[in-house]
Amino acid sequence: MENAAVILAGGQGKRMKTVKPKVLCEVLGEPMLEWELNACERAGIKNIFVIKGYNGDMIDEYLAKRRSVSNITTILQAEQLGTGHAVMQASGELEKFSDANILVLNGDLPFIDVDTINGSLELHEKKGCAVTIVTARLENPTGYGRVIRSSDGLSAIVEQKDCDPMQLMINEINVGCYWFAGKELLETLGEITNDNAQGEYYLPDCIKLLIEKGKKADAYISRDSSAARGANDRRELLELNNIARAEIIGRHLDNGIEFTCTDGVIIGSKVTIGKGTVINAGVVLRGSTVIGENCRIGNNCVLENTVVGSNVDLNYVQAYESVIENDVKIGPFVQLRPNSHIMRGVKIGDFVEIKNSTIGEYTSVSHLTYIGDSDVGANVNFGCGVVTVNYNGYEKSRTVIEDNAFIGCNTNLVAPVRVGKGAYTAAGSTITKDIPDNALAIERGKAAIKEGYAINKLKARTEKYEHLKEQLESGGENKD
Q1: Do 201 and 114 touch, CB atoms closer than 8 A?
Q2: What confidence category does residue 225 fall into, taking pLDDT thresholds of 50, 70 and 90?
Q3: How far apart are CA 452 and CA 456, in angstroms?
Q4: What whole-number distance in Å separates Cα of residue 6 and Cα of residue 61?
Q5: Of all helices (H) and strands (E), which one includes residue 83?
Q6: Which of the residues 145, 158, 213, 366 could staple to 174 if both were Cys, CB 3.0 to 4.6 A apart?
Q7: Strand partners, 154
Q8: How far is it, in rounded angstroms, from Cα 312 to Cα 297?
Q9: pLDDT of 11 higher than 70
Q10: CATH classification at residue 151
């Protein structure tokens, strides 16, 4: 029987001062919810239930865009009446997992990882527990519920306000991550009450009832105390970002990646980098970006969901959802918009934008060029200021440029149009017709020169300049 997970994501997080649900606040560019979903999926959990509440539509919108390997279902908690109440909203769905184990996670624990999930499940199954909680040891446990152990497992979780002086000295705390035997959870959910000052149903009350019934309960200590770290305000969220950033950079250093400076460097948790690659200051690597070996990622590059081959040199490049093959050199000040494919050996110079296009092997796009919705062959040369005119105000059309073509400076290629193999466009041409192989295309308007036209047109400007020049030459002050 497959296990399931329930993520409690209904909280507003008022101290965050945002219209977003708290779980959508980001750590290294990804929502805290995404960190937990990723950990659950990597742990092999295929059925995940997200309990939404405040502005829950935003969670639905986020999940709709997400590439998921699991079955994720959102369930509304219309009133936020406690963690136990949140899990109750999923009880109908969870009936299908009564013979399995169910993981319940607070939604603001981005550092819960695969090892913690699988390690706690192993303990849970090995000891035949009704419930197993995840704990951490903190130097300063203030504010957390203390874990009270017995000789054979877990005895109780005591909230700080209820602790006696001896219990306050305990530094093992409840993280907010629980494995339940499905049947035990479902039965106990129906027995907890809201007989407390807040009038809410608390999930730890299920643990208390299970222990009182003599059911087996235990606690798994996470190897990483950061597993307990959540965020209730922007200061704490910044701390999470700093912790995650340092941890991930350290991991890449251990794998042989060179960082010339870590100032401004942000690397997402899913990013992979090959050996021998050098990362410079200000680099931001997001999403599922993959970088090959022996690359140089220069200052202030931003790569998001982009695959980069080996021996690639990038300098001030922003690339989104694109592919860059081996031995490519790009930059500075280049943007690759989604669905760009830069093939082997290509050189792209300064102030170039490429969008939804393939650039063939060993093609050169030197500077000041826009290539959109185009299929470019191998060994093509683009002069300065070339534009593929892909949009007529109603629809996008594609440009095709075949191998060995030469596109002269300031050429406009008005799509749909095809430039044949080895064809040549003269500088300043606006090409509106297909060009045969090996042909020269010259498409310029007829020059019209009107003698004397500029005298009156520029009279006021010329007079102003002459007046200014006279003032400066005579040592006067420019008051214009």
Answers
A1: no
A2: confident
A3: 8
A4: 19
A5: helix 83-88
A6: 145
A7: 149
A8: 8
A9: yes
A10: 3.90.550.10
- Please name which of 80, 75, 77, 127 lies closest in space to residue 101, comparing C-alpha atoms: 127
The pLDDT tens digits for 416-450 are 999 999 999 999 999 999 999 999 999 988 777 78
**% of the chain with per-residue pLDDT over 90:** 82
Q: Which helix (H) or strand (E) holds 455?
A: helix 453-457
Q: Active-site residues: which are they?
A: 367
Cis status of the peptide bond prior to 416, with omega within 30 of 0: yes
pLDDT at position 399 over 80: yes
**Domain end residue (candidates: 175, 208, 228):** 228
- How does pLDDT run across 134-164, given as a tens digit for each residue? 999 998 998 888 999 988 899 999 888 889 9
Distances in Å between the Cα of 66 and the Cα atoms of 34, 60, 241, 261, 340 are: 9, 10, 22, 32, 21
Counting the structural domains of the chain, the total is 3
Measured between alpha carbons, how far is 36 from 57 in angstroms, rounded to an integer?
19
Please list, in sequence order, all residues whose beta carbon lies within 8 angstroms of the beta carbon of residue 134, skipping any fewer than 6 positions away: 112, 116, 120, 175, 176, 177, 178, 219, 220, 222, 227
Residue indicated by tokens 């440029």 = 401
DSSP-derived pairing of the beta strands 26-27 and 30-31: antiparallel
Q: How far is CA 129 from CA 6, 186, 217, 433, in A?
A: 18, 15, 5, 75
Tell me: do 322 and 191 sit in the same domain.
no
Which of 29, 476, 472 is closest to 248 using CA atoms? Answer: 29
* CB-based contacts of 247-255 (< 8 A; 24+ apart in sequence): 248/28, 252/279
Please indicate, yes or no, if residue 320 is contained in any of the structural domains: yes
> What percentage of the chain's residues is helix, strand, coil (to nearest 5)?
25, 30, 45
Number of other residues whose CB lies within 10 A of the CB of residue 31: 23
299 located within any domain: yes
- What is the C-alpha to C-alpha distance for residues 310 and 381, in angstroms, rounded to an integer? 23
Interacting residues of 73 by C-beta distance below 8 A, sequence separation 6+: 47, 48, 49, 50, 93
Q: Which stretches within 127-273 are classed as H helix?
A: 165-168, 182-189, 204-212, 234-254
Looking at the fold, whether 211 and 239 belong to one and the same domain comes out as: no
In whole angstroms, how far apart are CA 98 and each of 1, 9, 60, 106, 218? 9, 22, 26, 21, 20
223 and 138 inside one domain? yes
Longest pairwise C-alpha distance within the chain: 104
- 304 and 334 part of one domain: yes
Position 33, amino acid: L
